[in-house]
Design goal:
binds magnesium ion, Rossmann fold, binds adenosine-5'-triphosphate, alpha/beta, about 10% strand, five-stranded parallel β-sheet
Length: about 220
């Protein structure tokens, strides 16, 4: 069904909320509903982005907070080329993190002034997602899930720059995600409770997507 409008959907939220799990489910669901769909991620959704990601996730590397912000943005600029080309070929894209993370971690978490990010957005972000889903839940449970996942992947030593931050940091980050959904200029965003079982969360995400798809049909 090549005539279906390709969708650009973002799933974001603090560490361990189930983003990667739900990105996989949503991509499969979109495929089942007749769309060509692919998943991607930030940081590291492109070849150059993978190199940038290796700096960003390495907790043994000291990084100036503004340099960190700009590296995330550099990754995103490169990533958006890929997203655009997929959408232009009729392929829907589900991204594991996007702009909300930069607002939440760098501005609300690291307390950077927003001017630099605002300028970068103005000059580099020309399309916003059809739907941004923010997965939201109790921080401690989410961080425990993220810790288990890192341990399972045996990445606790080399990765986990953000996972090793203090709880207060994540509380600020969570506020940042909640603020993001109030900003209509970034496109339609919703908060979804991610504390339930994987299938329950997937169902809520599909419902939110169905609403966007219905609206597209009516336009
Ligand atoms: N609804 C759920 N209930 C319980 N455990 C879950 C749920 N969703 C995901 N998990 C588990 O929690 C861990 C983290 O999930 P996942 O990797 O999808 O989260 P994430 O948001 O992508 O984390 P990160 O930010 O660290 O990449 C995984 O081990 C996953 O299997
Ligand atoms: Mg993940």
């Amino acid at each position: 069904m090549a005539d279906l409008k390709p969708l650009f959907i973002v799933i974001d939220g603090i560490d361990g909320t189930g983003k990667t799990t739900q990105v996989r489910f949503l991509t499969e669901w979109l495929q089942k509903t007749g769309r060509e769909a692919e998943s991607t991620q930030e940081p590291g959704g492109t070849a150059a982005g993978a190199v940038i990601r290796s700096i960003l996730v390495n907790k043994n590397m000291t990084l100036d907070p503004n340099a960190e912000l700009l590296l995330f943005c550099a990754d995103r600029v490169d990533h958006m080329q890929k997203i655009n080309s997929k959408l232009n070929s009729g392929i829907s894209v589900v991204s594991d993190r996007f702009l909300p993370s930069t607002w939440a971690y760098q501005i609300f978490g690291r307390k950077l002034q927003p001017g630099l990010l605002e300028a970068v957005i103005l000059h580099t972000v020309h399309i916003f997602p059809d739907l941004t889903i923010i997965l939201d839940m109790d921080i401690d449970t989410a961080l425990a899930r993220a810790g288990e996942r890192l341990a399972k992947d045996e990445k606790t030593i080399t990765e986990g720059r953000f996972e090793s931050e203090k709880r207060d940091f994540f509380s600020d980050v969570q506020k940042g995600f909640r603020w993001y959904v109030t900003q209509e200029r970034f496109g339609k965003s919703v908060i979804i409770d991610a504390s339930g079982k994987t299938d329950e969360v997937a169902g809520k995400i599909q419902k939110a997507c169905s609403e966007v798809i219905c609206k597209h049909h009516m336009d």
